[in-house]
Amino acid sequence: MDLDSDLDLDVRAVGDLRPAEREALFERDAGVAEIRGDVRDITTRVRDEGDVAVREFSRDFDDVEVGNLDVTDQAERAVREVDDRVLAAIRTAVDNVRSFHERQVPDDWRVAEEGRELGRRFRPIERVGVYVPGGAAAYPSSAVMGVVPAVVAGVEHVAVATPPADEMNPVTLAAIHEAGADRVYAIGGAQAVAALAYGTDTVDRVQKVVGPGNRWVTAAKAEVRGDVEIDFLAGPSEILVLADDTATPEYVAADLLAQAEHDPNASVVCVTDSEAVAEAVVAAVAKRLPDRARAETAREALENDASGVFLARSMPEAVLFAEEYAAEHLSIQADDDEALLDRLSNAGSVFLGPFTPVAAGDYASGTNHVLPTGGGARLHGGLSVDTFLRSSTVQRLSRGALDDLSETITTLAEAEGLEAHAESVRTRLRDDDA
């Protein structure tokens, strides 16, 4: 099929967007809401029926008869099966991601001031489940991104769930092993999230489920949240390229296509104040699309309601568009990219300059590619060591420090009607006086 002639991608003016078009762009959910009922049924059955339901859903959704759900030994063997060049690339990626995340490990601290010793300490969660996507494509990189920060944080048990297949992808399995996972399960989709969240005869229950996935995985994470912690809702991939008249249209087009090939529900956007750049980007995308191996998937993503090439009246308007969009990946291809970055807050990960493709962060630069989608970057950042830590505050007061604070404490306690709180202070001071 001649995908070039079929591509429905035109330049649209930001100022001409209708309310419904703006809603599709800025309130996107990638079809998650419409499948919540089906996902609720899946997670309930896995919670109630365990391995039996998991195997049934593997037959129904993955077309695979799964024997042993636990494939940890297979992951260990895969390291010896993959090409040496691929294994070297996995290990380089693991090293870079580990190095970046080791810089995120916080130190416990305490300070002493006028008899008050105050501090904070950090401890890892004990049991974490990482979802690693599979299916239409293999994602060994997601294994690295999900497992390595958990290991760096000191998580005691890191389990991975990844979709089953008649022949599991050895590269993904090798990456899971090299990243440091303790357990690997051949389970995909919503049923994988439920198995990790609730446990089965085979799968150990975890305290937190993290990782990206399609809309079924995202909906399942939303469904189990409350019964188990999650990182955030990381659905189909997104990119927004913020470009000025110095941008190279072919680079922009290449980045849009790179994210579009992930999923038909991916969101791919370019916004620029240059009409020439906007039109050249559309032409470059149309020219490059037919040659891509996943051209049909990319075409669907390019044509969905949350994607497009947009012409702003000025760079300030383009910045406002990008800030409202709050993309998972924000690529700034502009002359003064640092100045534009200073005016932006809402982005999962930022890629500056013409030689920083999103693919660098996807694989090997060291930053994490598990990032918030659907506007989640307005509220939080991506996966990090912090995701796997909990903190406690610590304090010790001398008798003198308590005496200095006593009037403040007792006055506020009594104002709240909590007389015993005030008395807990007075008792200590009376006993000490005696």
Give me a quick take on this structure:
This protein is an alpha/beta fold. It is built from 18 helices and 14 strands. The longest helix is centred in the N-terminal third of the chain and has 19 residues, at 84-102.
Provide tags for this entry.
18 helices; 434 residues; globular; 5-stranded parallel sheet; 46% helix; single chain; 6-stranded parallel sheet
Tally of strands: 14
Q: How far do the termini sit from each other?
A: 93 Å
Helix share, percent: 40-55%
Low-confidence regions: 1-5
As a percent range, the share of strand residues is: 15-25%
Q: What is the mean predicted local confidence, pLDDT?
A: 95
The assigned structural class equals: alpha/beta
Q: Tell me the Rg in angstroms.
A: 25 Å
Shape: globular
Break the fold down into its secondary structure elements and pairings.
Blueprint: H1 3-6, E1 11-13, H2 19-26, H3 36-49, H4 51-62, H5 72-81, H6 84-102, E2 109-113, E3 116-124, E4 127-131, H7 140-153, E5 157-162, H8 170-179, E6 183-186, H9 189-198, E7 208-210, H10 215-224, E8 229-230, E9 238-243, H11 249-260, E10 267-272, H12 275-288, H13 295-303, E11 308-311, H14 315-325, E12 329-333, H15 337-342, E13 349-352, H16 358-363, E14 389-397, H17 399-415, H18 419-433
Parallel strand pairs: 1-11, 4-5, 4-7, 5-6, 7-8, 9-10, 9-12, 10-11, 12-13
Antiparallel strand pairs: 2-3, 3-14
Helix pairs in contact: 3-4, 3-9, 3-10, 4-9, 5-8, 6-7, 6-8, 7-8, 9-10, 11-12, 11-13, 17-18
